[in-house]
Structures are given as structure tokens and as C-alpha cells.
Amino acid sequence: MAVSFGIAKIISEHPSYNYGLALPFVIVFYLLNSANTYVVPFFEFDIGIELSAILKIFLVIGCYITFVLFLLFSSALSLFVKNSKLHLGWPIFTAVASLLTLVFKDENPLFGMLFGLTAIIYLAVSRLDNGSLSVVLIQGVFGFFSIFCFVTGILWLNESFVFVDIISSLFGFESIAKDSVKVGAFMLIVLGYSVFYSVFKAGELLSSESSA
Predict the structure, then answer these.
(1) pLDDT tens-digit map of 148-207
(2) What are the pLDDT digits (tens) for 136-148?
(3) How far apart are the C-alpha atoms of 37 and 20, rounded to whole Å?
(4) CB contact set of 54 (below 8 Å; sequence gap of 6+)
(5) In Å, what is the CA distance from 187 to each residue of 47, 48, 91, 150, 191?
(6) Secondary structure of residue 14 in the 3-state scheme
(7) Of 30, 41, 112, 100, which Cα lies nearest the Cα of 70?
(8) 86: which residues sit within 8 A by CB, 6+ positions away?
């Protein structure tokens, strides 16, 4: 059953709503933990808190959309197996990019490591791909991540603050502000739902594509 927050059924059941449900929570959580302002290069001009916040909102939106698209595209990777081995370029690129993110992780979000882990596993067992390996791996890794978000969010609501270092690393923060924990708890729960929905929808779409 979709999380509706009292929104009309025609909206709450639409895929785009469920994909993006966690986005406002992620934005607020990010802003509460990112107090720095941007400075214009060369001119050393500080653009201020409000304009910096607007730019950060666009940044988070871009990263969130990229995250969802990566998830969906990576799920569909096995569909290309019968046509060309060039499909291996995608997991190789993903693995290298995630490793570079880990090496140069200074204030960089590490969500890409989830895709990097999946890509490395895929490359290791790609010979066994019969047209469904990618979606199985995505469902396994991100299904677990969804449960991780749910559990962590519920524990935070209960004031049991576990996995704080992991969450801060995923978002690229040195630490998590105390006044953001409550928002973070709801954010994790809703993010868990959105990730679970994305994984479920990817599997559903690929099943219909395979049977077509």
C-alpha cells in the first residue's frame, strides 16, 4: 500500500510519486547537515545562506534522480546480454567510478558504493548471466539497503542512534547534527520505502519485458 500522506489516490499510486517520495526528506536532512555557504571562485564572494541552500536543493535533486535512474538502468543490464558483450562497459564504468569516489571521498556522498559493490559482484559472475542476473543483484543489494533504512530510521525514532557513521558517510558528512536526527529518522523510513518501490518496480518491468 502506497504511503499517501492524505494525498489523492490517483497521485499516490503514480510511479513518479513513489520514486520521489523521499526526496523532500532527503533535501531537508542534507540542508540541516550542510551549513557551509558557496563562494564564487576568483572573486571570493560568499553568495549567502539562502542562495547556497537553493543551489544545494538542485544538487540533491540531481543526485536523487541519478540514483533512481542508476538503479533502474542497472536492473535492466541483463537484457543486453544476448545482444552484445559491450554491456560489460556499464558495470566496469560503475565499479571504477565508485572506487574513485571512495578514494576522493572528501565530502562526497558514498551512495555510489552501493552500485560499485553490485557492479563488482556482477563482473565476477557475469558468465552465469542468463538474462536476469542484474535484476537479482539489484534486488538483493538494494532490497537489503531498503531494510537497513527502515530499521535504522525506526531505531532513531526510538532514540537508539546506531549506524550514524555509515549514514554520515553515505551523505558525505563529517558528522550528523543533533537537530537533524528526528528528520533523519523519517527520511530513512521513507527512503527505505522509495528504494523498495524502485526495486520492486524494476523487477516488475523486467518481468513484463522478458515475457513480451
Answers:
(1) 999 999 999 999 999 999 999 888 888 899 899 999 999 999 999 999 998 888 777 666
(2) 888 899 999 999 9
(3) 26
(4) none
(5) 28, 26, 29, 9, 6
(6) coil
(7) 112
(8) 80
